[in-house]
Amino acid sequence: MKSNNKDKQLGMNPGTASNRLLKQLLFSLGDRLGMQWCFQCASKIESVEDMSIEHKVPWLHSEDPVGLYFDLDNIAFSHKVCNYAASRPRKAKKFCPSPASYRRGCRCEGCRKSNSEYRKALRARIY
Are residues 75 and 86 in the same domain? Predict the structure, then answer.
């Protein structure tokens, strides 16, 4: 396999380097805009290594997968572990009480209170 100059200078595949740069840029811009809050657990995402980008409504097997996949209003930041756990419904209970559990339909007292506090904090960040 032939090695090229970019690989040598970057110490990695240029595609890998480009993806890392884009993720760092998104994290930095999200942080500056106050958007570094996990869609699933509503906690602050502290590092780029913990951040993932997820679809709020799953696009796979939907009626309009292309539309949902590219809909920017359907995109959110999440912790990697929260995003991965949310894709496995049997593990979702570990987040109760939380705003994410409330969004999934839980209406226990803890989830209602947690969601209310999350919404108040969100309004305070926006205004």
Answer: yes
Query: pTM of the entire structure?
Result: 0.63
CA separation for the pair 74, 41 (Å, rounded): 17
Return the HEC string of 67-95.
HHHHCHHHEEEEEHHHHHHHCCHHHHHHH
Domain check: are 52 and 108 in the same one?
yes
Question: Which among 75, 74, 72, 30 is positioned nearest to 48, based on CA atoms?
Answer: 30
Over 60: is that where the pLDDT of 92 sits? no
3-class secondary structure, 54: strand
**Do 43 and 105 reside in the same domain of the chain?**
yes
